[in-house]
Write a structure and sequence with these properties.
Strand order of the largest sheet: 1-2
Structural class: alpha+beta
Mean pLDDT: 73
InterPro entries: Excalibur_Ca-bd_domain (IPR008613)
Number of helices: 4
Organism: Pseudaeromonas sharmana
Protein name: Excalibur calcium-binding domain-containing protein
Strand content: 5-15%
Low-confidence stretches: 33-46
Pfam family, one: Excalibur
Distance between the termini: 74 Å
Length: about 100
């Protein structure tokens, strides 16, 4: 009888541990055109999913080849050999797409 109560107590404890309010579940996102996989939590936005369906790494490396800031950001974040962030701050094509 003690073992049964102990098992129930452990089960309840595990249930409460894994079902905390506000817990997020990570699910994989695959960039088929790029060959990159990443993880996104279910509570975050899906802007990276939208970007992956609009753009793919196709040899563009310079700002003059980009049609939008979103495309430049996608290339900088996901493609190798980019030459669009001269100061290394993570913001691509600052002179081309800046609003000031």
């Amino acid at each position: 009888m003690r073992k049964f109560i102990l098992l129930i107590a452990i089960g309840v404890g595990l249930y409460q541990y894994f079902n905390k309010p506000g817990a997020t579940v990570s699910e994989p996102i695959y960039y088929d055109d790029v060959g990159i996989s990443a993880y996104q939590t279910s509570t975050s936005t899906s802007s990276s999913v939208v970007a992956s369906t609009q753009f793919s790494c196709q040899g563009k490396t310079h700002c003059s080849q980009m049609g939008s800031y979103e495309e430049a950001k996608f290339y900088l974040d996901n493609c190798p050999g980019m030459k669009m962030d001269g100061d290394g701050d993570g913001i691509p094509c600052e002179q081309q797409f800046s609003s000031w």
